[in-house]
Design goal:
The chain has 18 helices and no strands. By secondary structure, the protein is mainly α.
Length: 419
């Protein structure tokens, strides 16, 4: 039997819960860039140096990305087995629980472990929520809804930056932020208890018996190219965002120092404001310009603006925040584009697994890229501008990644599909 499509109220509940999960996920992603140096100053004490603080920022980021890569693949696959809504609820519980425990750490190593565990949930929320929404809101509304989902992530970073701006994070006052980050556990419990499931997933359950395991199918002859394409086009913006763009925030913290405690939060806020607009517009870019042409244009623009951010301006200069805003807008067009493109590549039965694998393999690359950037940072004596400019060239690799991708789009199956 084919389940009936969701009623309007149920669809609204799915969209609201998914957006909240993504927004709060964004807050988790924005937490350490704005708090890292304060945490390190507090926990390292007299042994802290600015270069060591930057090195720990790279380690925290790499741990989060490694956890997100593993969580995205594992919890995406789990979502294909037990349901998108359950996979999403578990992901929220994981990232909020371990983020909240960060308020009680006493060493850098404890925080490093917790950032990895937070990453498991951070990775799991994206494939399950995107698959759930794309299947409950099919057809003409999908580019708009995809843009909203992509913008939600950066909205969370923007909200967190404004909280940190109103209540500055310092070496003496940062634990409250992690306590606040534990609050989404309530949302996770509510999603598990009450959120309706995707009709497309319910319809596909019976027909999936006897088929190959999802990961094996994704690398089989029929889906191998789609899977490798998804991994390539996801890796470029992910590595670029964390191995290049995010260095601007600890750079702003170092330059502004104690003279302008809120400057780092303001920097993150300007970037996040541009990112909210860019990630929403990215879905429209994919729909209007075509997948390949849109991605190529984003890659060229992101490369140029990121180099400009690190070489043509600097923190406390009048031009810094406008360029930060522009870079945030352009570099996050990728993520709205991905929210449209990745679900199109895979059939319903492996959609969450395929989207999660593609998106989160980029995070494996990101973990390595951030660690390499950290090594480069130390070798260059803590020169944020040089490290950021060199790392910006990652975005140029997008021109190679998209060359192999079909311009598409393949059509997303309707909610009544039995494939």
């Amino acid at each position: 039997m084919t389940p009936a499509p969701l009623e309007r109220r149920a669809k609204a509940a799915v969209l609201t819960a998914s957006l909240l999960g993504i927004v709060l996920d964004g807050a988790e992603l924005g937490l350490m860039p704005v708090a890292s140096l304060s945490v390190s100053r507090s926990l390292l004490g007299d042994s802290f140096t600015p270069t060591l603080g930057g090195d720990w920022f790279a380690r925290f980021t790499a741990a989060l990305m490694l956890g997100a890569a593993i969580g995205g693949i594992a919890l995406g696959a789990l979502g294909d087995r037990i349901g998108r809504a359950r996979g999403m609820g578990l992901s929220i519980l994981i990232y909020s629980t371990f983020a909240g425990l960060g308020a009680w750490v006493t060493t850098q190593e404890q925080m490093l472990l917790l950032r990895f565990l937070v990453g498991l949930g951070v990775g799991g929320i994206w494939p399950n929520s995107v698959a759930l929404v794309s299947e409950c809101w099919p057809g003409a509304s999908r580019p708009l809804v995809a843009g909203m989902m992509a913008a939600g992530l950066n909205s969370g970073i923007l909200v967190l930056s404004q909280v940190a701006r109103a209540w500055p994070i310092t070496p003496d006052s940062w634990r409250w932020l992690f306590q606040l980050a534990g609050a989404p556990v309530l949302l996770g419990a509510a999603v598990l208890a009450a959120l309706p499931e995707s009709p497309a997933w319910l319809a596909s359950r019976g027909s999936s018996k006897g088929t190959r395991p999802p990961l094996r199918e994704l690398f089989g002859p029929s889906l191998r190219r789609a899977t490798l394409t998804g991994i390539a086009v996801s890796a470029v913006p992910m590595v670029g965002a964390w191995a290049a763009s995010k260095w601007m925030i600890p750079w702003a913290d170092k330059v502004a120092g104690v003279s302008e405690v809120g400057y780092k939060a303001a920097t993150q806020g300007w970037w996040a404001l541009g990112a909210v607009l860019g990630s929403f517009a990215g879905a429209q870019v994919a729909a209007r310009l075509g997948r390949r042409r849109g991605y190529m244009l984003i890659s060229v623009s992101a490369t140029l603006l990121t180099v400009a951010m690190f070489q043509l301006t600097a923190p406390l200069r009048p031009s810094f925040h406008p360029i930060v805003f522009a870079q945030g807008l352009v570099a996050t067009l990728y993520f709205g584009w991905l929210t449209v493109y990745l679900p199109e590549l895979f059939p319903t039965r492996v959609r969450a697994t395929g989207s999660g694998l593609a998106y989160n393999c980029g995070r494996f690359a990101t973990a390595g890229g951030v660690l390499m950037a950290g090594v480069l940072f130390t070798a260059m004596g803590g020169d944020y501008a040089r490290v950021g400019a060199l790392s910006a060239l990652i975005y140029a690799l997008g021109l190679l990644a998209i060359a192999w991708a079909p311009d598409g789009p393949p059509e997303l199956e309707p909610a009544t599909s039995h494939r």
